[in-house]
């Protein structure tokens, strides 16, 4: 068990919990090298998982240090949270930043590199950045006036943000281990809160110690070179398991969806650790406009309709108070019921801990009463929607028009429960898709 100081004796690596639920470990102070004490408290963070809060103190020199470490394992995928602060209350959002988390204030392009883990709030994150920048300013003013002047501008902006004068403010928290987190809220709408899970690169797995640098990278990039993909044929692509980094196989198959287009179904199963995933990739030319498909669900039969949500599609439902941003679930080809169930399961697992801790503490018990009531109401409504107990609508908003909902009618006859609307992509969507930087003419020539 790692601590904030150097552990004195090997046998105390297995300490006993005291009556206060704390582990106490004698450690050497990093400041004066005398005896100190590290106290470790395992706690469950609402909306997240179990972590270890470590507090070190030295009675001799007064040195103190507090950190937070994940008590769980490295997640199969990395995660990136994008959050937009729109009011002063948003500074109170809780944040868990693991040892591998990178926090960035996008508006001023200021990044906090990975550091010892923290369990804090956004306000404290901003305040720490401000304190660190101010600390050496007197020295910079004398030695490097140009750096001093540049940082003064950033300090002024940060101060203004903390005073509530800079809204909206965009921040991101990127963690290749998947163990960092920003607390969501039932009031989050649009692009205010976005979580994106991603597959780690080989270099990132090396950084986490899951692979060694000398390991050969999987040859999946060249595995399909010069291969003519045939409908119905299953292709096996060598890859690296994102969970354990051992060799695995990605099975790929081209499937035609009637009245839509061809898609690529990709499924991965690791024989070593049991990791499983599946995804859908769509292709074809980029259409001139995006597309919104709205389906009205009226009965249980509608829940069994086939639905394709592409990796660029946002799922919306004002009736359910639900918004799922692109990248959260990736591409999915399933039924309406299957898609909503996946959304429910992932969100419920993120908000509540689904396993009791053996001491009678049930999922969500440590959550504030008002917050828990709002989430219970939300999930109750979603559960009733999955049983078609009331009519509701869902909308697939896809800037690449690569999503699809099965019709009840035959041929080209319109389905009265489906509304399809073409729309002009926003500048933000164009930037996110890289379409503003795409060169479609004379692309073989250098700029």
UniProtKB/TrEMBL annotation:
Residues 27-184, 239-407 form the Zinc finger ZPR1-type domain. The keyword Cell cycle does not apply. Keywords: Metal-binding, Zinc, Zinc-finger. Residues 438-447 have a biased composition (Basic and acidic residues). The keyword Nucleus does not apply. Residues 424-434 have a biased composition (Acidic residues). It comes from the Eukaryota. PANTHER family: ZINC FINGER PROTEIN ZPR1. Belongs to the ZPR1 family. This is Nucleolar zinc-finger protein. It comes from Lithohypha guttulata.
